[in-house]
């Protein structure tokens, strides 16, 4: 090792061998620093599986780097002098290694990036902060795209990303198949006893077992089941999970994307978000593999386009949107929602079968699929007027793929309309009808989805009209929603009162969550 090396801190969601801070670096002139820190593990009380996933993936990644000849300084959570924060650990590592410079890749989250931006003033050596080139769209490119637009429409951004990558594009600049977006073909309700092929599950090895014991000991009061723990924790395992998705699920991914089946937790979804977000999988390579499946006739265009849109469309857009609107997005509450999150979000104890199944999956797997997050859990939070900060904390804590950059826009803007429509052109509000159409939840629910008001009526029905009525001033001028008020007005006062009083009665039954679930 030459004297005064470069110190390269790698954060828990930067577990990628081609990370920008490693480009062109000589192994004998660098020390990689990885840190398990209390601040990250507890800024919300993450699901036990999420902490286990990050720590195990970090330890495996450190071992791979060492094997490849890098010098890795790995600080465990239980190391005696662990300061508990990234900044504290970089300061201690500077004392240990006396580096001539610190090279770090920008953080994905605002909170961490703010801390990193203080490093040049705090530390005597030079600090270089590189852009995270694992995203397709840089901050500057997103800002240039957003500049002067009245509305940041995802579809327009998505087409730009299609052109940029050439994914599903013809040489003449037109989209393959003639249409940019085949979402209309991707709304099939579940059929019969729809069963997707089982996804690969990964047996914990010694490193993971050690982490599981640590999590059990230190985070026993956090939400969620720790075991069975079956997430991929290395890039090799994550590639296996991706192989299985492209072999067995991609074909049906599109049509059944919005379907929900009681007890079936992932259906045809890829279950790859945890691996993509912490760096074990490259999102663009996944899109190329999806396109290949289409070219080889193994998957229809609507499935492949749908998958690619989720990644180069939604995922990239959400990231750009986050940085465009931070830090204000955390505080946004355009609909002035103030109700506490109900206790059943943490216990799953509710007679609403749709919600209890989604919360069960969340608790058991640290995962629920998109439409469960959006149209069951999210729809409920929107209609019941739950305080956005409480909803943000919940989503950030309970999902193994949750980092604020991706959780916050989905929660605040997509489900809660808390940004006043900067992302969605209308709130994703729905009555029990939608859930009944897209799932098999209702047929065995103790509530009746066809009953609109009164005892035993599906709570989503009166809540829907309560929401519409209480936000009339705000929403009636929205051309995508305005005509709903004509239906409401045709109902007459008695019916309207029935809806409103049923909703009020239901809302009074909601027991607010006890303190300490999401934060100490
Ligand atoms: P698939 O259905 O197989 O989709 C493929 C990939 O597309 C995903 O792995 C993901 O990388 C990407 N993707 C799809 N939808 C979105 C989206 N709306 N935003 C960003 N990326 C998307 N995703 C997270 O990764 N982390 C979160 O914290 C998160 N919070 C969410 C909160 C709410 C309220 C909602 C409605 C959605 C949230 N999502 C989040 C998006 C989406 O639900 C998950 O990415 C998806 O369920 C992950 O499962 P999968 O890998 O099987 O996804
Ligand atoms: C989510 C998480 C957790 C629970 N713990 C750590 C940790 O101890 N060390 C670490 O480097 N990263 C952790 N992470 C992921 C980070 O929160 C994530 O990498 C950054 O916050 C991104 O801005
Ligand atoms: Fe959910 Fe209502 Fe259907 Fe019950 S009846 S599962 S509460 S939508």
Compute the average pLDDT. 97
**Would you count the extended β strands for me?**
5
Helix content: 40-55%
Strand content: under 5%
- N- to C-terminal distance: 43 Å
Bound molecules: flavin-adenine dinucleotide, ligand DLZ, iron/sulfur cluster
What's the shape?
A: globular
Tell me the series of helices and strands, N- to C-terminal: EEHHEHEHHEHHHHHHHHHHHHHHHHH
**Which class of secondary structure composition applies to the elements?**
mainly alpha
Q: What count of helical segments does DSSP give?
A: 22
Strand order of the largest sheet: 3-2-1-4-5
- Please state the CA-atom Rg, rounded to the nearest Å: 24 Å
Low-confidence stretches: none
Give the biggest beta sheet: 5 strands, parallel
Provide key terms for this protein.
22 helices; 520 residues; binds iron/sulfur cluster; mainly alpha; globular; binds flavin-adenine dinucleotide
């Amino acid at each position: 090792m030459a004297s005064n090396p470069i110190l390269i801190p790698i954060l828990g969601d930067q577990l990628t061998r081609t990370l920008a801070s490693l480009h062109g670096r000589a192994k004998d002139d660098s020390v990689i620093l990885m840190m398990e820190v209390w601040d990250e593990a507890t800024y919300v009380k993450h699901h036990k599986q999420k902490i286990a996933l990050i720590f195990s993936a970090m330890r495996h990644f450190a071992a791979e780097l060492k094997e490849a000849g890098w010098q890795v300084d790995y600080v465990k959570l239980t190391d005696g002098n662990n300061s508990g924060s990234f900044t504290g650990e970089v300061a201690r590592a500077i004392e240990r290694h006396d580096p001539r410079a610190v090279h770090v890749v920008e953080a994905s989250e605002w909170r961490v990036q703010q801390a990193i931006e203080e490093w040049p003033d705090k530390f005597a050596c030079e600090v270089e902060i590189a852009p995270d080139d694992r995203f397709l769209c840089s901050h500057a490119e997103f800002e240039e795209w957003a500049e002067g637009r009245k509305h940041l429409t995802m579809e327009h951004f998505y087409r730009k990303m299609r052109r940029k990558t050439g994914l599903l594009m013809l040489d003449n600049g037109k989209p393959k198949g003639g249409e940019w977006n085949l979402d209309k073909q991707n709304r099939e309700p579940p059929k019969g006893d729809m069963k997707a092929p089982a996804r690969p599950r990964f047996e914990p090895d010694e490193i993971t077992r050690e982490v599981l014991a640590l999590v059990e000991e230190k985070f026993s009061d956090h939400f969620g089941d720790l075991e069975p723990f079956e997430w991929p924790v290395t890039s090799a395992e994550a590639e296996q999970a991706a192989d299985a998705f492209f072999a067995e699920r991609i074909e049906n991914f599109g049509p059944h994307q919005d379907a929900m089946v009681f007890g079936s937790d992932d259906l045809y979804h890829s279950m790859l978000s945890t691996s993509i977000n912490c760096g074990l999988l490259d999102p663009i390579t996944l899109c190329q593999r999806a396109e290949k499946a289409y070219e080889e006739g193994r998957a229809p265009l609507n499935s492949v386009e749908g998958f690619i849109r989720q990644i180069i469309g939604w995922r990239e857009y959400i990231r750009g949107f986050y940085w465009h609107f931070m830090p204000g997005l955390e505080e946004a509450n355009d609909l002035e929602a103030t109700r506490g999150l109900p206790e059943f979000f943490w216990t799953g104890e509710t007679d609403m079968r749709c919600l209890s199944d989604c919360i069960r999956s969340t608790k058991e797997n640290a995962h629920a699929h998109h439409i469960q997050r959006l149209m069951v859990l999210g729809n409920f939070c929107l209609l019941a007027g739950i305080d956005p900060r409480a909803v943000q904390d919940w989503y950030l804590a309970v999902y193994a793929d949750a980092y604020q950059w991706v959780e916050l826009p989905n929660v605040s803007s997509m489900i809660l309309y808390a940004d006043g429509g900067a992302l969605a052109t209308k709130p994703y509000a729905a009555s029990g009808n939608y859930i009944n159409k897209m799932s098999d939840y209702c047929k065995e629910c103790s509530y009746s989805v066809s009953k609109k008001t009164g005892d035993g009526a599906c709570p989503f029905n009166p809540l829907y009209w309560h929401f519409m009525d209480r936000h009339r001033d705000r929403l009636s001028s929205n051309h995508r929603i305005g005509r709903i008020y004509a239906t409401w007005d045709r109902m007459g006062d008695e019916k309207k009162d029935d809806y409103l009083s049923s909703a009020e009665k239901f809302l009074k039954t909601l027991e607010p969550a006890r303190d300490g679930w999401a934060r100490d």
